[in-house]
Amino acid sequence: MGRVTSNLHKRRKSGAKRKIHRLKKNYETARQPSLCKLGGHKVTDVRVRGGNLKQRALRLSLGNFAWGSEGIAKKARILDVVYSPSNNEYVRTKTIVRGVIVTIDAAPFRRWYEQNYNQNLTRISSDVQEESALSATQKNRFESRRKNHAVDEELRKEFGAGRVYACVSARPGQVGRADGYVLEGPELEFLVKKLAQKKKGKGTKKA
Predict the structure, then answer these.
(1) What count of other Cβ atoms lies within 10 Å of the Cβ of residue 19?
(2) Of 134, 143, 164, 182, which has the fewest beta carbons less than 10 angstroms from its beta carbon?
(3) Rounded to an integer, what distance in angstroms lies between the CA atom of residue 150 and that of residue 146?
């Protein structure tokens, strides 16, 4: 029958081997992993148990990403796969699975921020209006939004580079999408340290 999802071949918690007392069942049949690649858009339907359908993504380049601290989500282009906690091969082959860290285009988030707060997020800005062109109501609205509000300094640097790090939280092989959330705070600090260590390791190898 090939691949199965059964655990009969696994040992017990005590370490004892299990005796396989029955044949494989049809409902335990598993399938090849989809290993969704970066670039283009190709999603196929797969018929599953009960006549239901799953969307299997084979290639994706866009996704909906949430900016948690601001409470918004935007559709953004996925630029690259930079880190995978489970398998380094996913980075080399640009494979998108749940949990990988990708870089996404920062423009949709930057545009929203500047329109919502009328404040520069990067040095170059096109969506900030001049104070003289604003009405009194607009000024009060923007000032109340800016009050006690700050963007993480590390995240601001990423916006300056034109891309931000995001984690894919959807399962492309099951739902046909690559949605996720923007990294900030401790998660972003951890990733930056990891990437710096990786870069440092490559430098010592070359030397």
Answers:
(1) 6
(2) 143
(3) 8
Which residue do the tokens 């409902």 mark?
27
Output the pTM of the full model. 0.84
Q: How many CB atoms lie within 10 A of CB 25?
A: 11
| Cα distances (angstroms) measured from residue 196 to each of 153, 190, 203 | 17, 10, 11
Report yes or no: 79 and 165 within 8 Å, Cβ to Cβ.
no
Rounded to 10 deg, the angle between the 136-146 and 107-117 helix axes is 120
- Give the separation between CA 200 and CA 32, rounded to whole angstroms: 36
**How would you write the pLDDT of the chain (207 residues) with one tens digit per residue?**
578 888 888 999 999 999 999 999 988 888 999 999 999 999 999 998 899 999 999 999 999 999 999 999 999 999 999 999 999 999 999 999 999 999 999 999 999 988 888 888 777 767 777 777 788 888 888 888 888 888 888 898 899 899 999 999 999 999 999 999 999 999 999 999 999 988 877 766 655
d(CA 53, CA 51): 7
Spatial CA neighbour of 164 closest among 125, 191, 146: 191
